Amino acid sequence: MDSSQLLGITTFTYLFSTLLYVAIFVFKAPRLGTPATLFTFLAWVIQTAGLILRWKESYNLGFGHAPLTNMYESVVFFAWVIIILYLAIEWKFKTKVIGAFAVPFAFLAMAYASFSTDISKTINPLVPALQSNWLIAHVVTCFVGYAAFAVAAALGIMYLMKSREAGRQTGESSSLLSSLPPLKTIDDITHKTMVFGFIWLSGGIITGAIWANSAWGTYWSWDPKETWSLITWFLYAITLHAKYTRGWSGTKIAFLSIFGFVAVLFTYYGVNFLLAGLHSYGSS
Amino acid sequence: MKQTNSLWSFFASVKLAIFTLSFIAVSSIIGTIIPQGESHSFYIKNYGEVWARFFEVLDIPDMYYSWWFIGLLGLLSANLIICSIDRFPGVWRIVNADNLAIKPERLQKMSESKSWKISKSTTDPVLLSKVLLKNGWKTVQKKTDNTVLYFSQKGRWSRTGVYLVHASILIILTGAIIGHFLGFKGSVMIPETKSSSKIYSYENSTPIKLGFEIRCDSFTIEYYDNGMPKEYMSKLTVLKDNREILTKNIEVNSPLTYEGITFYQSSYEGYQDFLITITEQLSEEKKQFIVPFQRQKEWKEKQLRFGIVNAEAIGQRVVRSKLWFKAGNSPASIEWIKDGKSITVKDGSKLYSISVKQMYATGLQVARDPGVWLVYIGCILMLAGLYMAFFMSHRRIWLLITTDENNRSSILLAGSANKNRVDFSSRFSELAQKIESSIS
Question: Is the pTM value of this prediction over 0.95?
């Protein structure tokens, strides 16, 4: 069994997790809650094993490095962090329905990694510029941030669906969306997730700057990836200011969480394929 | 006076902050789409005459250093400074407030409060304060004739977190300004065995004197089995007044710093010349020669003649070369040598070890940035400030015990938190329960 098989299995297990959580949501079947959590955790364990195996395989090829060095590996890691964060939120806030919104992100990421023809799954040795201890720190901090923003966007979507229903005031408490947590709770979790992501994104930008300085002697060079990460950082900074000082909440913050994640996706993915720059390693 | 006030409040406003941040964010996109730092003709070719002139006016080819972009950063800084000056004193007052001076009426109105009435015989204020201490609330107290007030707080400094973040941004910008004006960035190409005492600025290619010499002793590239480059290495020596001060092997990600100037491995250039090093093994006499392709060289004292008669290359990289070598009157030897390897040749009683490698020049990026430490300090402060601002909250607990003329006591437990109130609320209930069980 090799790592790509394990990670391939993960894709399907995350699909199944998604279906379980959607079933809880759609059929209001709380009995499925525990199986959904257990199954998702199992899927995550399989993915962890896949990542460790890939790490080991790189050593067997004679140039060991952490599986965090190209597009494929980063997408897989992204999905891995989304699930960990989601399970932490589920455990802390004792609510399962969020899974129907958050777990699909992990599944989509894995499906893209597994089936897209744009990205290569081979394990390659590291070019000299990537051989640094800052590699792991930089990639981990960035992707924990990105994953948190993905979960925040999932929560934002959930908020908008629920608030639209509340706006209609049909009084049909039997409707689908009544099983979602109260709006206030969703708003609170969205905010906390966003703040969490913001700190990690800050850490990601900082570790990137320190690394750039040790490799090239410039901590900031306005390369497109750097600039887009800063734009994303500004977007979330604006959101947090609007929330704290102007009292924005609810729908506005939900929209901003989705909008912010679009910027994250562009920073992460769009820049690699649409704009040229120092970060070209990430695109192969 | 009123006008200065309105100007002040304009600069202190969050509206301005949101506007400036949005403007910077949106305008930053331009520079990621329109290539930066190209020649005027490039823009004419790709965007047409009119747009190129328009770009010129707005400094788009160098937009992150343009007057208007720097101006926006300046506006953001002014906003940060004035808004912090405006708000910080109020926060400072809360941080250092005398919380024992609070009025009982205000305690009752707090978001969390709970009271009990009991006969005096069962209440001992000291015992109650111990309940607080046991639950991690260290108290201060104030007594009057008929009241005892205990107060405890946690995380009061977290209120300054947001100002720490603001300050950290200013510190980072200051570091960047210092680096820009007092530092330099440039590059230099040094052929193996040669040295240089100056480098060339990125901005305008003017030479910058180092104050010492830097010599490239050797440059090597290591390859993976699949042909991908594994590492670029230069052996550099710092020389001052022709004295060798220090020698270091640098790689990408592992530069050399001397007197505040750092040398980074950044590129290389392959020559058609060869570097031949000959060592006489007994006397350990050694000499290095730069030998152009298919030209003869001579080490006269040793009566040695040699040259590279043929070479095999992949692209610009020589893989092996054919050495022709003649010592004294012995017959000449011809042998293929892998690049960078050596062979041994015998001439009567003498043994020569000869190594042959393609000659390279190493491309170094050179930077002096006296502001970088300020930038790093700013980064650390930013993370600390963000953590304080978002993950810590200022939690306060008051316990007021009042005894009335009928010798009955009333106990009031009140508390507030400036963040994460849900969590605080459940902790407050736990604490209230413990107080209750200790008085019943």
Answer: no
